[in-house]
């Protein structure tokens, strides 16, 4: 389970070898054996003993800002990229081998978006179904151009990102088409989001960034050495590359919340330039997210929890990079 600290003034410490949370004159005790990660989304205190207990049990502590972006993490010092894999990642950025990996990531991203629209379409009436299936057909045609690209990433970068952008534009137009009128949005907006839909997406992607970064580091991959996304100071370029496969999970969670009428205007606060999730909104969203990621699915030939698919793919990619470099 993920331990979420989202009450201002909470205190996380250790009591009888377990985590104990104090918030609003209430106490909750949780065994460390039941915790996979700790997510702190607001002003809270944490004792050094709680940090040590987390490290001893390989539990990540992650801090998010109010937009859902990861501000920092605490985890065991044994986690880290090997020098050889990091060197191989640097080589991939200048080779056709790197192009193949990025093409595969973008094709899988497109297929996941298409599958999401298809799943949404079979539950709708004929008019909406026809619109979604026409959109899927357009997305398929663009997706089919990606495998034909050849050459090193530096040459193919603009073409790959162009195809991905055109597919994503049609995808988000389709999601917008399905939303209730009062929640429809003009375009994808970021920090701050200008509307409730984009606010939920951005917050969810922020949580997802943390999951992807952790999985890459555990697998020995360097989150800062990107292939498609260019390197930059303090920029986790490879997280931006690899996360594309999994964004659809957040999209599914958000669309499900809207379709089941679980979203309320009261879950958002107005800020300069847009809206942000408030405490109640974060609670509703993170509960739905954790439930979703704890579900088991049939994935690439095996039964696995959604949350573990990222680690599974990260290890497979690390092994592939090592094997192809031998």
TrEMBL record:
One Pfam family assigned to this protein is Cas_Cas1
Segments crossing the lipid bilayer: none
**Residues of the signal sequence?**
none
Q: Which cofactor does it need?
A: Mg(2+); Mn(2+)
> Its GO biological process terms?
defense response to virus; maintenance of CRISPR repeat elements
Entry binding sites for Mn(2+)? 164, 229, 244
Keyword field: Antiviral defense, DNA-binding, Endonuclease, Hydrolase, Magnesium, Manganese, Metal-binding, Nuclease
Gene Ontology molecular functions: DNA binding; endonuclease activity; hydrolase activity; metal ion binding
Q: What EC number(s) would the UniProt record show?
A: 3.1.-.-
- Source domain of life is Bacteria
Keyword Secreted recorded: no
Q: What does this protein do?
A: CRISPR (clustered regularly interspaced short palindromic repeat), is an adaptive immune system that provides protection against mobile genetic elements (viruses, transposable elements and conjugative plasmids). CRISPR clusters contain spacers, sequences complementary to antecedent mobile elements, and target invading nucleic acids. CRISPR clusters are transcribed and processed into CRISPR RNA (crRNA). Acts as a dsDNA endonuclease. Involved in the integration of spacer DNA into the CRISPR cassette.
Question: Family per UniProt?
Answer: Belongs to the CRISPR-associated endonuclease Cas1 family.
Q: How does it assemble?
A: Homodimer, forms a heterotetramer with a Cas2 homodimer.
User: Cross-referenced HAMAP family, in alphabetical order?
Assistant: Cas1
Q: Which PANTHER family match?
A: CRISPR-ASSOCIATED ENDONUCLEASE CAS1 1 (PTHR34353:SF2)
Q: What is this protein called?
A: CRISPR-associated endonuclease Cas1
The encoding gene is cas1
């Amino acid at each position: 389970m993920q331990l979420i600290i989202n009450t201002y003034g909470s205190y996380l410490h250790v009591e009888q070898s377990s985590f104990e949370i104090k918030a609003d004159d209430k106490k909750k005790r949780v065994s460390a054996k039941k915790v996979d990660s700790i997510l702190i989304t607001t002003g809270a205190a944490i004792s050094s003993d709680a940090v040590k207990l987390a490290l001893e049990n390989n539990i990540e502590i992650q801090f998010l800002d109010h937009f859902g972006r990861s501000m920092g993490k605490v985890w065991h010092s044994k986690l880290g990229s090997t020098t050889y894999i990091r060197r191989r990642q640097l080589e991939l950025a200048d080779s056709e081998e790197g192009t193949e990996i990025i093409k595969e990531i973008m094709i899988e991203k497109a297929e996941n978006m298409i599958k999401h629209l298809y799943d949404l379409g079979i539950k709708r009436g004929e008019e909406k179904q026809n619109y979604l299936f026409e959109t899927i057909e357009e997305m398929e045609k663009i997706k089919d151009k990606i495998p034909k690209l050849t050459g090193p990433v530096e040459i193919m970068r603009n073409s790959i990102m162009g195809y991905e952008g055109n597919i994503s534009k049609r995808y988000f137009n389709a999601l917008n088409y399905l939303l209730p009128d009062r929640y429809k949005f003009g375009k994808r907006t970021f920090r701050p989001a200008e509307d409730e839909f984009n606010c939920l997406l951005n917050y969810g992607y922020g949580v997802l960034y943390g999951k992807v970064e952790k999985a890459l580091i555990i697998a020995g991959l360097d989150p800062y050495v990107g292939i498609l996304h260019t390197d930059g100071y303090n920029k986790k370029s490879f997280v931006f590359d690899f996360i594309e496969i999994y964004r659809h999970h957040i999209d599914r969670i958000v669309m499900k919340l809207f379709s089941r009428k679980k979203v309320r205007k009261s879950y958002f606060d107005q800020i300069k330039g847009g809206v942000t999730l408030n405490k109640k909104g974060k609670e509703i969203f993170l509960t739905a997210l954790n439930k979703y990621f704890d579900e088991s699915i049939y994935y690439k030939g095996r039964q696995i929890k959604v949350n573990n698919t990222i680690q599974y793919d990260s290890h497979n990619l690390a092994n592939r990079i090592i094997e192809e470099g031998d």
